[in-house]
Design a protein that fits this description.
single chain; about 140 residues; mainly beta; Type Iii Antifreeze Protein Isoform Hplc 12; SH3 type barrels; 2 domains; five-stranded mixed β-barrel; two-stranded antiparallel sheet; 11 strands; elongated
């Protein structure tokens, strides 16, 4: 009896609300409330609340009716590729501020490659809330 009940439970997938795009959303676009809707789905690893997706940036193209998976969206980028940025180096009690060029897009907290315009050296730094890049030794 218990085995039969277990088989019945496992045979039918659970249905839950899943967030899906209402229209095609291009990569790097910030998602608004009108871009998404809730549908019943048995697909796992998706978002279950619209509030979790609104304000996030699409990392890939999102197609209507397909569930938005956890890796498909993330925080919006504050710096773009080739943007001029302030670079702040901190280490051993020394603080240096210079100008650099971002070599990739990045959101707050992301580790990005940058090029120091004075020395042409490629560095890695973390994007700060104010849009500067902090490089630590």
């Amino acid at each position: 009896m218990l085995l039969r009940l277990l088989f019945i439970i496992l045979a039918f997938p659970a249905i839950a609300d899943t967030v899906v795009p209402a229209r095609t959303i291009r990569a790097n676009a910030v998602i608004t409330e009108t871009d998404v809707t809730l549908v019943a789905s048995s697909k796992a690893h998706g978002y279950g609340r619209i509030a979790d997706v609104v304000g996030q940036e699409a990392r890939v193209v999102l197609y209507p009716g397909r569930p938005i998976l956890l890796d498909d969206v993330g925080p919006p980028a504050v710096i773009t590729r080739n943007q001029l940025v302030r670079v702040r180096f901190l280490g051993n009690g020394l603080s240096i501020v210079t100008e650099g060029r971002a070599l990739e897009r990045g959101a707050i907290g992301d580790r990005v490659r940058i090029m120091n315009l004075a020395s042409r050296a490629t560095l890695f730094g973390q994007v700060q809330e104010d849009g500067t890049i902090q490089v630590k030794q």
